[in-house]
User: What shape does this take?
Amino acid sequence: MQYSPPIISCLTERLVVLKEVWYLVGESNEITKSEIVSFLTDKQEIVLFRNSENEVIAFDAHCSHLGANLKSGRLSTEGIICPLHQICFQSNGKSKPSPFGQYEQKKFKTKERFGSVFVYIGEEPEPVFPDFSLIPENKQMFETFRTQKVMATQDAILVNAFDPYHLEFVHKRKLMGSPTLHWDKKNRILEFLYTSQVIGYKLSDCIMKWISKNQIQVRIRSFNGHLFAIESDLGKVKSQLLLSLNPFPTYTLVSGILVQKKTFPVFNFLRMKLAGFLFRRFLLADLKPLEGMKLQMDHLKQDSYFRVIADCLESMKKE
Ligand code: FES
Ligand SMILES: [Fe+2]
Assistant: This one.
């Protein structure tokens, strides 16, 4: 790959990337048997709760009878009760017998991983769910990032995550060797691998330099353009971050889960705080240049490296 000034810049076309998505809703302990949680995407509103078997249930927020919003309903041991005509929807989505007849509420698949709840919106078959390889599962500890509203579109964020050119300008990281980009079209996984060294002098740069002996191996994978698995190998210290994008036309809600290796309680706390600080510094650096960006697809397609990303974006376009 040849290095030249970044060519992503401005203008026009905006892609809508909305098919088949696992969304991060929140921490597992936020979904309880006593409270209805509402979750909103650009196209779908969902309500979530736990049933008496402790399973997370996710329904279309709008009652299949006349459309009242179930978020202001209530929970019973039998299911969720609509606030308007009191129809009770059981965990399987079917209503209990009611004077208005039998109804069925649209149900969404849920998953509990990394101490958090995910909901799946889309057709079957569902896409591959991210895994991590750097930290063994029995040694993982998690911390959830609160949802942030980022004034950038999803496609701009996706291209940025795989853009090797901006690393030097925005993050003060110099590439060591050639990065590799691989697009698994069948599973819609875009993978980016690179090794970098720190060339900046801010506090976070100095810490990174010191921890990593100035050699940072990074693996970024995008799963269908919505979930990002980011793995950083700093030698003795390894970090994993799962980012979830919830895109809207002019902004994106970004939330994430930081995964670190468990050791001793005091170290765990410090390690999590330090990793959170470093990841935040890194991600915050991206926000300003991405704000208000409109992706120039023509230029993206003209570059041999970015063409792979353009291909990936197009295959995720809403049909
Ligand atoms: S609108 Fe929900 S029961 Fe009538
Ligand atoms: Fe970046």
Remarks:
- The radius of gyration is 22 Å.
- The pocket of fe (ii) ion (ligand 2) is lined by residues 160, 166, 170-171, 286 (CB under 6 Å).
- The mean pLDDT is 87.
